[in-house]
């Protein structure tokens, strides 16, 4: 057998053994790593930080440096975890080195979702850090790269502009085209009316992380801009995710306008909705709590509802 054929057989076998990697839910250009792979990258970066601040001398330190220099773009989430850690240190070297490595990856990327993720991480790292100028410079460069990437992207496809919300939901239920469904979620968010947001809620409950995570982020962005009366309409939605999200934001707004519906949701069939409704009521009531605790019996839930209704009546009489 020739050397060429032997290598070809090995490559074919490797291709059959190694499964195709799922994309990262927050950045499609990156693979979704296992917990052990993420832990390995965290260890490499933590060892490098120790080396860079003089705590890991000799051969072990040299190995830590070489391992760090060999990291590829799939280590970006771990690099940001390392950046968050090093941003709190007095030493400037680890922040500078990690930032430089991130810059090399990010300023070549065409993944606008990755660049969005990077901006959020840099904003978080900036808070209270003594290395703010360095991090601000990188954030500005990432923002400029993101704007350039978005400017070069095509506008909403005509086939998508003409689709109704019901047609998009039908596609979500019957097809497995994640890239197509991510575009649909963005279009629903762009439209922003109630029917479109209800449809976006369906995409945010998708089985596929690559569709669910960006749709959930878009849904949060839209809901946090709505008035209490607009959010309260979703408290009665058939989608439990929308009922839960609406409950959470009613709590953030501390508005009495939806309190009656929140009291009803304490007996919701979905435990996530029950919990969100309870927490929202406690925030609206300024810390007062009539229950129920998680997984209470229906009798206990009804008693809590009575307590909340009495509280709401007292507020109306003030």
- Overall mean pLDDT stands at 89
How many discrete structural domains?
A: 3
Sheet with most strands: 2 strands, antiparallel
Radius of gyration: 25 Å
Termini distance? 92 Å
One letter per element, helices H and strands E, the order comes to HEEHHHHHHHHHHHHHHHH
Number of helices: 17
- Percentage of residues in strands: under 5%
Low-confidence stretches: 3-18
How many distinct beta strands? 2
- Helix-and-strand structural type: mainly alpha
Helix coverage percent of residues?
55-70%
Q: What are its keywords?
A:
single chain; 318 residues; mainly alpha; 3 domains; two-stranded antiparallel sheet; 17 helices; 68% helix; globular
Describe this structure in words.
The chain has three domains: 35-151; 155-225, no CATH class; 239-318, no CATH class. The longest helix has 20 residues, at 132-151. The model is unreliable at 3-18 (pLDDT under 50). The radius of gyration is 25 Å and the shape is globular. 33% of the residues are buried. Strand 1 and strand 2 (27-31) form a beta hairpin. The chain starts with a helix and ends with a helix. Helices cover 68% and strands 2% of the residues. By secondary structure, it is mainly alpha-helical. The protein has a two-stranded antiparallel ribbon with strand order 1-2.
């Amino acid at each position: 057998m020739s050397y060429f054929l032997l290598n070809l057989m090995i490559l074919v076998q490797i291709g059959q053994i190694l499964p195709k990697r799922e994309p990262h839910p927050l950045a499609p250009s990156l693979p979704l790593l296992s917990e052990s792979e993420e832990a390995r990258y965290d260890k490499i970066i933590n060892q490098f930080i120790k080396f860079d601040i003089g705590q890991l001398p000799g051969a072990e330190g040299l190995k830590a440096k070489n391992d760090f220099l060999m990291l590829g773009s799939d280590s970006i989430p771990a690099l940001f975890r390392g950046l968050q850690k090093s941003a709190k240190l007095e030493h400037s070297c680890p922040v500078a080195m990690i930032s430089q490595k991130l810059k090399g990856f990010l300023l070549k990327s065409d993944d606008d979702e990755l660049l969005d993720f990077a901006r959020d991480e840099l904003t978080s790292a900036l808070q209270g850090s003594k290395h703010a100028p360095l991090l601000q410079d990188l954030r500005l460069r990432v923002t400029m790269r993101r704007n350039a990437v978005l400017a070069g992207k095509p506008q909403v496809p005509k086939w998508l502009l003409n689709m109704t919300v019901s047609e998009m939901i039908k596609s979500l239920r019957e097809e497995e085209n994640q890239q197509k469904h991510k575009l649909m979620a963005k279009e629903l968010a762009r439209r922003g009316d109630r029917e479109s947001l209800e449809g976006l809620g369906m995409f945010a409950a998708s089985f596929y992380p690559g569709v669910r995570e960006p749709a959930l982020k878009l849904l949060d962005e839209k809901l946090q801009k709505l008035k209490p009366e607009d959010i309260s309409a979703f408290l009665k939605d058939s989608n439990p995710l929308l009922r839960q999200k609406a409950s959470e934001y009613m709590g953030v707004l501390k508005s009495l306008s939806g309190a009656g519906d929140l009291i009803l949701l304490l007996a919701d069939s979905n435990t996530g909705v029950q919990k969100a409704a309870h927490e929202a009521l406690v925030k609206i009531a300024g810390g007062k709590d009539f229950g129920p605790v998680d997984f209470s019996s229906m009798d206990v839930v009804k008693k809590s509802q009575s307590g909340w209704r009495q509280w709401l009546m007292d507020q109306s009489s003030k």
